[in-house]
Task: structure prediction
Amino acid sequence: MSKKLHVAIVGATGAVGVEMIKTLEKRDFPVGQLTLLASARSAGKTLPFRGQEIIIKELRDDSFAGVDVALFSAGGDISRKYAALAVQAGAVVVDNSSAFRMEADVPLVVPEINGADVKKHKGIIANPNCTTAITLMALHPLHQEFRVKRIFAASYQAVSGTGAQAIAELRAQVHAIAAGQPVEKHVYPHQIAFNVLPHVDSFLETGYTKEEMKMQNEGRRIMHHPTFKASVTCVRVPVYRAHSVAVHAEFERPVSLTAAREVLAKAPGLDVVDNPSKCEYPLPLYAAERDNCQVGRLRLDCALDNGLAFWVAGDQLLKGAALNAVQIAELL
Result:
């Protein structure tokens, strides 16, 4: 790529926005000009990029003049309002919110899985849900070999998935408990320190949460697999960074551990960490700040036909968000 691009980041001061800036630098993305956009209260502050301090500008209707690629990570309402303006100005939008993920004419992309779908874009490409992306990094290679029918899964989701305030809340609660002081809660409905909450996103009439249904709905689009089924319980855990998911998958074809390991060992963006006798398995602590996801605890499922159980961990700020968005931009 010789052409230098004008890149804009919307939501530059958020947890994902900051990772987007770092990822552009780390992967040596051909940025000719970087425009950082955020709310009025952040305007005038600076963030580092390639040894310079870039001044943050207020997001406005006319912020996208001359922009080639706009990476959005500022929530669905902002995306719905400003993505169209960015496209009208000539930019291609890679959106990290859920605003466009289920729209038929917007590709929903994990580059290692369905990168070719990028070519179908009409100005907007959607980044998938973080838990879905991390799970599919391990599930999709197995699906290609054995064809997945359904999964049962439970997620163990870090507080950084909620944003910077949630990280601060966990830290403050841990300090308060250690000091014998009362715990304050603002972000979550219950104390998150030394606790787990089986509640991520809002509840639907079915009793599932929106987050739990994303695995099935988005998984079908990304894997081009319209009959894929996923029954998921999403759980918020007192971990700062990196999500983990316990997956029980049922396939159409017989599965062997040897074949499954071979498939996963060759999968891009995935490391097999699976030596339980030496206590080696994926841990969010070690998956944090790493580009690759990790898979381990591989075993034949004793309750499903042609079933495989596994544990996958990945940094949801990276593969679940910023890294995936920059990889999409690279495909563009």
